[in-house]
Amino acid sequence: MDPEMNKLLKWSVANSQASVGANGEGSAPNAPAAASDLTPQMINTLFGGPSEADLMRAAMEVVHDKESDLENKLIAFDNFEQLIEGIDNANNLVPLNLWKPLVELLKHDEAEIRRMAAWCVGTAVQNNPQAQDQLVTLNEIPTLVTLATTESNPATRKKAVYAISSAVRNHQPALDALNKSLPEGYPTDKTDAADMDGIDIIMDKLRSHPVEASA
């Protein structure tokens, strides 16, 4: 049985018993509000709404849909970012095959889409070794470094640095990949992913990296 359906069944039985008094009639005194223990997942199961995995897939489809306008793409992307704030959903990017469609958007023509893509990458990998591994496997640290050092849009550049910072902290393979991707002039002695002060030095330099203004 679906775990949420099982919870719903238990909730139904418990509240049916609570609603009957000692003589089998009427409501028991001080009975708790029936709906107070219903979770969104249980309600979703009851009414057959889309799962969070379905919502993640749908959001990414909207962002990639050529017929969708920028406003709707950004709304969908914002919803996607909120969904992957949960580590379970972030880890579901792999079985849902959503990592590749996500990182492809780091190279999108529209700066706002690049910004949201970097933001989502940063959200997914933050304090999440599984997602950090995936980002390294996809070899997207260099892409983020390129955004952080050449992107003319300040907001996009800021999110790229955020994504890099989230990716490399306490994750040695990601920091190693970063050190190989940094431009000349960056510190090369910050090689310990657990050295937060050392990583902060790199991030501060990335934030202040000179970028040519767009024409």
Automatic annotation (TrEMBL):
It is found in: Cytoplasm. One of its GO terms (biological process) is regulation of translation. GO terms for molecular function: adenyl-nucleotide exchange factor activity. Keywords: Cytoplasm, Repeat, Translation regulation. The keyword Lipid biosynthesis does not apply. SUPFAM superfamilies: ARM repeat (SSF48371). Residues 5-93 form the Nucleotide exchange factor Fes1 domain. Functions as a nucleotide exchange factor (NEF) for Hsp70 chaperones which accelerates the release of ADP. Required for fully efficient Hsp70-mediated folding of proteins. This is Hsp70 nucleotide exchange factor FES1.
